[in-house]
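Lecture notes, structural biology module. Today: joint structure prediction for complexes of two components.
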Amino acid sequence: MAVTPLYKQFADQLAASIRDGVLRPGERIASVRIASQQHKVSVTTVVRAYELLESRGIIESQPQSGYFVREQPEAPPKPALRTTSREDHPAWQESTEVDVSRLVLATLKTIQQDGTVPLGSPYPNPALFPSHRLAQYAGRIARHASQSSVFDDLPPGHPELLRQIARRYLENGLKVDPEEIVITVGATEAINLCLQAVARPGDTIAVETPTFYAMLHAIERLGMRALEIPTDPQRGIDVGALEERMKTQAIAACMVMPNFQNPLGFQMPDSEKERLVRLAEQHQMPVIENAVYSELYYGNAHPSSLKNYDRDGLVLHCSSFSKSLTSAYRIGWAMPGRYRAQVEKLKFLNTLATPTAPQRAIAEYLTQGGYERHLRRVRRAFAQQRDMMRHFVLRFFPAGTQVSEPQGGYVLWVELPQGVDAMELYRRSLALGITVAPGRIFAATNRYSHFIRLNYSYAWSKETEQALKLVGKLVEELAG
Amino acid sequence: MAVTPLYKQFADQLAASIRDGVLRPGERIASVRIASQQHKVSVTTVVRAYELLESRGIIESQPQSGYFVREQPEAPPKPALRTTSREDHPAWQESTEVDVSRLVLATLKTIQQDGTVPLGSPYPNPALFPSHRLAQYAGRIARHASQSSVFDDLPPGHPELLRQIARRYLENGLKVDPEEIVITVGATEAINLCLQAVARPGDTIAVETPTFYAMLHAIERLGMRALEIPTDPQRGIDVGALEERMKTQAIAACMVMPNFQNPLGFQMPDSEKERLVRLAEQHQMPVIENAVYSELYYGNAHPSSLKNYDRDGLVLHCSSFSKSLTSAYRIGWAMPGRYRAQVEKLKFLNTLATPTAPQRAIAEYLTQGGYERHLRRVRRAFAQQRDMMRHFVLRFFPAGTQVSEPQGGYVLWVELPQGVDAMELYRRSLALGITVAPGRIFAATNRYSHFIRLNYSYAWSKETEQALKLVGKLVEELAG
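The predicted structure, tokenised, for the full assembly:
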């Protein structure tokens, strides 16, 4: 076996770090003395390694300042980070078992890519957010938050933000005490914590079908079982069907999105909301309510929440600012009713605390006012864009295509002609730089194999129209 | 039964919201029209309710602008949020079953209170952080991050931060590819995700004893069992004892803090680190390494990590900036070796993404340089303060008291004379405005009933000395 001298091994490792982009052209590398200490090799070894790298043109010494990484035009460094990786991306192609959460992450990552038409995105167009004002507040708060500490806003969270959230509910007709609220890292964390607070591994959780995938993931990850209850595209979960199932089966909890459900877009009628809560009371069954789209209504008044009908504290209401104000801050919350103490404790165990500065920036925004005006503008835009998206899908997609009629939010649920494989459509669209969300991710099984979800939050443009036309053509091909 | 008219019910609700501090003096309340829509009551009801509240002096109308909450000098509003609540605080006093995680949260919350001497804190003095520079970067980044979106830094995280972390490891003698890293909400999330990636409910996890409570909480929360392995105050976990146990018992994973363990402060010798990793290899047992204190060494060189000896990718290395740079940003990470794909996926399911702005601010700080200089200053301060704390504990506490000799970090482990009840000491100290961390929180059982942990990261002052003297007196009383 050939022996590689120590100095050469050391040089090779350093060269690899430069190739990997860990050290970049122009950056200084450790001095001989420091490198010798840190890597526990002799000074001579380091000197010989540096000489070797210099002779190869990988580093250069500059008098009085030390060694620096040279520009390497001949071998362009690979990007510091892939946007989609081998594991992340089409893992589902190689396996018969679809890993839905991996597919979702892959879908999201394609949206990150420049030039992709983000029809598959679950998030609203960030251009609609009052980002400039929010950024001003965030900037000011960050600059003044010197010596801020994790202790500042331990669970339940920043007091002024709790108060502003409670005030906002009050304006919308729901009396909330700030102490009922626990701030979380987005609604994702809120849903996870609420589910863990009310159910145990092996328990059965009733969900809508189709349903928002993050709810399925939370159930699966905690070792619970999802029971999909028939869901009407206009009226939401079939409370009667749920009641029937409860006669023969133990159901530990129910998770629903009563307003502008993702992906169906319905708003449950008040009577159905109340009926669901009464059923829950009767069986003392907790209900997790995902309310992230509630602010994005097209009607005249803010829709009610299950929480409005909750007399026993059985409703665990989860929401966030990610769909209505900013998605980058990751600020959500739970109002867990009688489970508040458990959820606060789980929050502490899961992530200890939510970063302080984003909480304060949003609190400041809400204090300064203008949120309602911003929301009115967004709701108007979404209502118009819904009509555009429906119109063009029905025009460009083949006969047999059906589309939902969302009453709020910004996603359209599209049923393609029978036999069209939405996963194949997803792949072919992606090859054209267009993302769509395949029906596969909205159920535990592949029952929505010929459905897709489209995002209409982006300002309507020629490009959108062109993208829809292309997807329509692909659907036609696949419909054969 | 007396019937309360609708307008009076509505007025009472609004009055309660004002009393609770949800609406504050000087704030405008909803117009009659809006309130009528939102609360689904008639305009007449709202008008009569507002008149009633006006007659009671709770609100006032201002011409052309609407109704406002009046100052209410006679009934001072209660604080918007208690700092310690009934559920959070001395719940442990009322129960024989100690809820350790609740006790920890209660301890942390007492530290928040003004004037408390934070000897029980797990966090370093924030005055030592380069907060001003960090805040400048954060401010600049926040202002320029308009239209930032959750897509910007999906797991694994912000690319430049990943690169800077990898570079820092390289400087300390560990070759890391940025792609090995997953950014998390503090090390707390990293530990939770790593544990879930490698073990299942019911599994046994080997830990040090005493051990850092967050590790015990993660084990308990996931329905696993902690197996406490004897741990030497100077050399760390007894690898031989662990090996013995593995002969008779299935151990799914091991969780340790090899450098400056909380609470013991030891640095495992390199030979022991290597021995532990080889044992893990032999049994293909994953090892979760908590490295949050590794940067805070008092010796001449950065200590090695278990990761330095890891040939098979079995070490899941977790760390954060919370102990060395800023605790308020909540930025941590995992390098999960061969479990990277699972941890990235679990991160996505747990909190979707880590907020972007704090990641970018820290990346900018690391790019601009000065971290090592800051750390040198902190290490020097901690080494001096360790000596002060040891000196005064030995001077003020009764004979029979023993103290640890930390080689890094900023906490002292104190064994009180036998029979001293550290929980009672915790309570009595708190009554004097001094927190100490009771031994109870560092084990699954009460085996450290006469131990406390003290934080020496704060600049030494007369007040510290006075506090130690008082605690020493209490110990004397309790020693009877």
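Point to remember: The domain at 131-369 of chain B is CATH 3.40.640.10 (Aspartate Aminotransferase; domain 2).
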